[in-house]
Amino acid sequence: MADVETFREETRRWLVAHAPASMYAPLTDPDDVCWGGRKARYPADVKQWLDVMAERGWTAPTWPREYGGGGLTKQEAKVLAEEIAKLRLRPPLTGFGLSMIGPLLLQEGSEELKREHIPPIVRGQIRWCQGYSEPGAGSDLAGLQTRAVRDGDSFIVNGQKVWTSYADKADWMFLLVRTDPEAPKHSGITFLLMDMETPGVSVRPIRLISGASPFCETFLTDVRVPARNVVGRVNGGWLIAKALLGHERTMIADVFKSRDDKEKLRALARRHLGEDGGRIADPVIRDRLAQLEMDQACLDLTLARARDGAKAGHKPGPESSIFKYYGTELNQRRRSLAMEVLGPNALGWEGPGFADDELRMTRDWLRSRGNTIEGGTSEIQLNIIAKRVLGLPD
Amino acid sequence: MDLVLTEEQELLQQTVRDFVARRSSLRRIRGLRDTRDADGFSRDLWREMARLGWVGIVLPEEHGGLGLGYLELMGVMEELGRGLMPEPMISTVLLGANAILLGGSEPQRREHLPAVARGERLLAVAYQEAHSRHDPHHVETRAERAGGGWGLRGEKIQVLDGHVADRLVVSARTAGDAHAADGITLFLVRPDAAGVAIERQSRLDGRNAALVRLDDVRVDADAVVGEVNQGGTLLARLLDRATAGLTAEMLGSMSAAFEMTVEYLKTRKQFGVPIGSFQALKHRAAKVFVELELARSAVMHAHRMLDERRDDASVARAVSIAKARCSDAFMLVGDEGVQMHGGIGMTDEHDIGFFLKRARAAEMTFGDAAWHRHRVAGLDGY
């Protein structure tokens, strides 16, 4: 334990010595997130924070040193995260590289792919996006049609991807392609890495009901991808994709665990509905707010129970489906309740007469409708629970 | 404390599960109802549960208990709930013994707790009144000083196991108006004392309850449990412990009802296929499963808070979250259970109806979901 405390002390001192003053602030605007990448243009302090942390490998604290990671043990990484949280420092870098493709490559990638891709992820030089969904393959992801045909030491890729988050800002894409159209649909899929600057790739942003969005359509026309960019085996991509999907679901559920929201909604209710002896004056809204907070508490406790169970060596179950299903439904209820609390002030789209936070809540409500669709719809999660947990017949 | 059971706790729970499967059954529960059994539970089973240590599981060893924690109790209650067992754990142990353990004098503890742990004394707490709904601090029953002791006058309703209790713990107003949390005092009353009239009530779930009328019932000064006028706090504390135990019982009941329903979905055929293959039913079953998982987390957390000896407000908050969740979840399981069983689910012959009735009764016991949400909002300052 003494070692841990020494590490904590050193870490804290190092962070204080190296973090620019402006980084001691929670992220409030999504535009402030540092995603890295070739196209990124960031303020000097953000760049400085990224560079000092990346230099030490602390953008990816547990990744091996030989690929530029921090080489920390899980316990040390936990201490680092705790100290960053205590100081209220911003994360130096965020993105699919750190959260998805990096861990996957470390686990499944060839030595060559690791050497090529891991260090630029750690340093925030390359930003990744995910090419899974297609116009004809949403919930039925394995029905994807984008074709990759072998040509010498390359694949020629043709097709269309949709809902590719940040494809317009990303440098590389990891994507699923069909390499054997004759095989059963799950067995003819390959997991590929593709440079977005390859000729034949074009990207078009998608505008959502909430206004702007990170989503894009990506069109692939005779795109030549080197065969060495295959992760895992040719036609063995489905297993890899599935492993990543479980991860994505837990991540989506986690995103909605915002402590600040609770206080915000209470304060909003007091402001718009008044108080009566310390209570929110409208008993119906008060009841629904309590319901929401208590449901969130139960979800948080269930997340904690899953973590404690894993620590105690219990086999992981279908938790990610429970969290994805319930967390997203809960977030939608929260956003809807905010609209009801705002009343007529919920109707602003832009411009005068509406406060900035009200405008954002309206957009957030509209955006939240997508939570139960993206990353596997609620219905798909319920199918998974019915089949894998309850054993109900097909 | 992690939200995960230890091996010992799992082992204990398994022992209780085996006991319930071997010694009780839904047929027994049905029989108690149909024969209008005078006790409404089995004294033999109760003594055996006492011998196994479960009756005194949370009572200190110095008073004849096992001195274990609430997470151990949770396992016991969950399994009793699976079997819908009516034996008087909540009335005698969680309410009655806790009143004496948390508030009683040393002589009161010595007199009653070892007898409770041996399964030889049954207790009931008479706190609910015709106008109190879910608020235990709404007390119209009055106690006035009389000679060196007190005279009690009033009427209590749905006193759990009041018809068999060897002692009653009665809440009465000794100061303040009917709604005040202050000014309540708890008294130990003999059921055979002059002026006590006990009448058994019949409830939809077949669980045992009684009306208790007090007509100038005289008790000595040493019948007071805890401090005069301070009984409101004590009552809230023991009710929180009883409510935690009830949520564990509910968790077991709803798990059993849900398993019964899923089994039916797999075996009942219509249109030539098991009805569990229809997505309309699959999704509803999956939603119920999610509710059960969330309920289990909340129930474990409430028991953990008691074991960690957290302050009253933290315990109250955790217990209220668990009770609100279990009330809603158990009702959902009951409603869906009957619906998914179709016509047979509406018949008295099928067991699923017992769970629906118990769901409603448990929901209304110690406060329904809306009352606990109101309580949490108050505790959280909004």
Provide structural commentary.
Chain A is α+β, with helices and mostly antiparallel strands. Helices cover 45% and strands 14% of the residues of chain A. Chain A folds into 3 domains: 2-122, Butyryl-Coa Dehydrogenase, subunit A, domain 1 (Orthogonal Bundle), CATH 1.10.540; 128-234, Beta Barrel (Butyryl-CoA Dehydrogenase, subunit A, domain 2), CATH 2.40.110; 256-389, Butyryl-CoA Dehydrogenase, subunit A, domain 3 (Up-down Bundle), CATH 1.20.140. Chain A has helices at residues 2-18, 44-55, 74-86, 96-108, 111-122, 237-255, 259-273, 283-311, 319-342, 356-368, 378-389, and strands spanning 128-131, 147-151, 154-162, 172-178, 189-195, 201-205, 216-226, 230-231, 275-276, 279-280. In chain A, strands 1-4-5-8 form a 4-stranded mixed sheet. In chain A, α4 (96-108) packs antiparallel against α5 (111-122). The mean pLDDT of chain A is 91. The longest helix of chain B is centred in the middle third of the chain and has 37 residues, at 231-267. Chain B has helices at residues 7-23, 26-34, 43-51, 70-82, 89-103, 106-117, 231-267, 279-307, 312-341, 352-364, 369-379; strands at residues 123-126, 142-146, 149-160, 167-173, 184-189, 196-201, 209-219, 224-225, 269-270, 273-274. Chain B is 51% helix and 15% strand. Chain B starts with 6 loop residues before the first helix and ends with a helix. In chain B, α9 runs antiparallel to α11. Chain A binds chain B through residues 266, 269-270, 278-280, 286-287, 289-291, 293-295, 297-299, 301-302, 304-305, 308-309, 311-312, 314, 322, 325-326, 379, 381-383, 385-387, 389-394, and chain B through 2-4, 262, 265-266, 273-274, 276-277, 279, 281-283, 285-287, 289-290, 293-298, 300-301, 321, 324-325, 370, 373-374, 376-378, 380-382.
